[in-house]
Design a protein that fits this description.
4-stranded antiparallel β-sheet; alpha+beta
């Protein structure tokens, strides 16, 4: 009888640990499926949109400021100071417009973000790497097969409760911002 109680307690503990440490993988999978299928309701449940917006605004503002300060032509331009002053408002408006459930859904439907498809069409293959930063932060790195490792965006999930997680940040590499576009 006593052995049965210890086995039950051990099994309960093992199930709890499996659910506790496996829950971010499940949350990341749910987010990925919602994003690829453009499921607005599931995206709303999976993402802390205000936190994601703020993180993207700060990243873009810093990257654009560095770009403007390092570009010799922009530094000598008399309107560069005006651009720097207006940049937070422009970046904020842009991010607020696109980082919504409908905006993410539209982006996925338009094909701007795609993954390998089962019908054999020519889409980019995306590899995912998963890992904990700490017990309450989990990171998914989405790397296109033909992209460099340092260009891959990272999706940071935060624990909300014991088993639930929400996307709170999308980290965009500085290498992506530094690339020159023709």
């Amino acid at each position: 009888m006593r052995r049965g109680i210890w086995l039950t307690i051990g099994a309960a503990f093992a199930l709890f640990a499996l659910a506790y440490f496996g829950s971010p993988f499940w949350a990341a999978r749910q987010f990925k499926e919602a994003a690829l299928s453009a499921d607005v309701d599931q995206l709303e449940a999976s993402v802390d949109f205000p936190a994601v917006r703020e993180s993207l605004k700060s990243q873009l503002a810093i990257a654009l400021t560095k770009k403007m300060q390092s570009d010799q032509e922009l530094r000598s331009n008399p309107f560069a100071g005006l651009g720097l002053m207006m940049m937070p408002a422009v970046v904020g408006t842009m991010v607020d417009a696109f980082v919504t459930p409908d905006g993410m859904s539209a982006m996925m439907k338009s094909g701007k973000v795609v993954e390998n498809r089962s019908d054999g069409s020519t889409a980019r293959k995306v590899d995912y790497e998963y890992g904990y930063r700490n017990l309450d932060r989990f990171v998914v790195t989405a790397k296109a097969a033909d992209a460099k490792k340092n260009e891959a965006p990272r999706f940071v999930f935060e624990r909300r409760g014991i088993f639930s997680w929400k996307l709170i940040r999308i980290e965009i590499s500085a290498a992506v911002f530094a690339q020159q576009r023709d």
